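Sharing a chain and its predicted structure for anyone who wants a worked example. Both blocks are below, sequence first, tokens second.
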Amino acid sequence: MPTDFPPVTDLCDDFDGKVTVLEPLFSDYGGLDRFCGPAATIQTLEDNTKVRARLEEPGEGRVLVVDGSGSLKCALVGGNLAELGEKNGWAGILVNGCVRDSEELKASKIGIKALALMPQKSVKDDRGAYDVTVNFAGAAISSGDYIYADADGIIVSKKALHSE
């Protein structure tokens, strides 16, 4: 999984005006603090059924972008899903919402950024939608856009900004 890309700050400088910088709302929870790849988006609210289903698929170095509408009422990703994502080759998970099982997330070899920790699990009603354009943190993100994330922040680009 690509972690050998230039720092996000350098990408911002080199591609000024061609990338969107997400607002600094996210913290690192995964075992990798830098990750990048094409986005696969999910829109959901307090239901992680589609998150699990997508992470069961081959990740092929993609970044799962989960728009949980910024809800702080439950976690959309936990230790089991982080392990599943790592096993299936996902580069990272970006959650506009909460995660749980912080020790398990840190032990995983996957990048995970989210708004906060929350011990409450989500419902399992299979609500939500795949591959829709999501809007949060000042950015519109579509499946296929490139996500670059490190300790300095997260950016979105319509195309790859590095060679793999």
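Comments welcome. The longest strand covers residues 35-43.
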